[in-house]
Design goal:
The protein is an alpha+beta fold. Helix content is 33%, strand content 25%. It folds into 2 domains: 68 residues; 134 residues, Sandwich (Immunoglobulin-like). One of its GO terms (cellular component) is mitochondrial inner membrane.
Length: 229
C-alpha cells in the first residue's frame, strides 16, 4: 500500500499492473527526451545572436520537424493500444466473484459456491487493531486464490460506485442495473487495498475494499469454513 509522500506506483501484484507500470516508464522516457531536446533548442534560440537575412525557408528541416513528432507518437501509440487490448482480454476464469456496491459498503458473492456471500464494512477508527490501517481495513476481506484467473462481476444497488484496487491494475464502475466485468491474476500473496473512486454520497471516503491473496489450499480451507457457518 502507499505510504506518506510516496510518489510512484504501488508494487504490481498482477501481470496487468506490471505492464501498466512498464508503459508508464516507457512514456516518461519519451516525454523526458522530447522536453529536453525542445527546451534546449528554445534556450539556444533565445541566447545566441546568430542571424541570416537570406534564410527564408528550410524545406528539409521542416520535413524533419513534421515527421519526427509523428514517429514519436507512434512509439507511444502502439504500446498503448497493445495494453488496452490486454486489459480488455477475458481469459477463461477459474473463479467468479460478484461485487455489489452499496451506500456505503461492499457485498461479495462467490457464484461458484453455494450460499457464500457477505458484506464488507470499513472498521471504525475506535475499533482498529494496532496493526490495522485507518480508512482502509474492513471486517470481511474478499479472499481469492493466487496464480488463478479471477473474474469479478461488478454492479451497484443504489448509486454509481467504483471498485478499484491499484496493486492489481483493476478499476471498474459499479452501476445500478448494469454488470461490468474485470479479469486479473494475482502472482503473489498479500493484502491489496483499494477505495471507491466514484463520488457516491456523504460516506464515499469510508467504503474501502481489501483483497486477500492466498494459496489455493488456504482458499479452499476458507471456503469450507465459510460453508460450515
Amino acid at each position: 500500500m502507499a505510504t506518506w509522500g510516496y510518489l510512484g506506483f504501488l508494487d504490481g501484484a498482477s501481470p496487468l499492473m506490471e505492464q501498466l507500470i512498464f508503459f508508464h516508464d516507457h512514456a516518461m522516457i519519451v516525454l523526458t527526451l522530447s522536453v529536453t531536446i525542445v527546451g534546449y533548442m528554445m534556450a539556444s534560440l533565445m541566447t545566441n545572436k546568430y542571424i541570416n537575412r537570406f534564410l527564408l525557408e528550410g524545406q528539409t528541416i521542416e520535413i524533419i520537424w513534421t515527421m519526427l513528432p509523428a514517429v514519436i507518437l507512434l512509439f507511444i501509440a502502439f504500446p498503448s493500444l497493445r495494453l488496452l487490448y490486454l486489459l480488455d482480454e477475458v481469459n477463461e476464469p477459474a473463479i467468479t466473484l460478484k461485487t455489489i456496491g452499496h451506500q456505503w459498503y461492499w457485498s461479495y458473492e462467490y457464484s461458484d459456491f453455494q450460499q457464500i456471500e457477505f458484506d464488507s464494512y470499513m472498521i471504525p477508527t475506535n475499533e482498529l487493531a494496532d496493526n490495522s490501517f485507518r480508512l482502509l481495513d474492513v471486517d470481511n476481506r474478499a479472499v481469492l486464490p493466487m496464480n488463478t484467473q479471477v473474474r469479478v462481476l461488478i454492479t451497484a444497488a443504489d448509486v454509481i460506485h467504483s471498485w478499484t484496487v491499484p496493486s492489481l491494475g483493476v478499476k471498474a464502475d459499479a452501476i445500478p442495473g448494469r454488470l461490468n466485468q474485470v479479469s486479473f491474476l494475482m502472482n503473489r500473496p498479500g493484502l491489496f487495498y483499494g477505495q471507491c473512486t466514484e463520488m457516491c454520497g456523504a460516506n464515499h471516503s469510508f467504503m474501502p475494499m481489501v483483497v486477500e491473496s492466498v494459496s489455493v489450499d488456504a482458499f479452499l480451507n476458507w471456503i469450507n469454513s465459510m460453508s460450515e457457518e
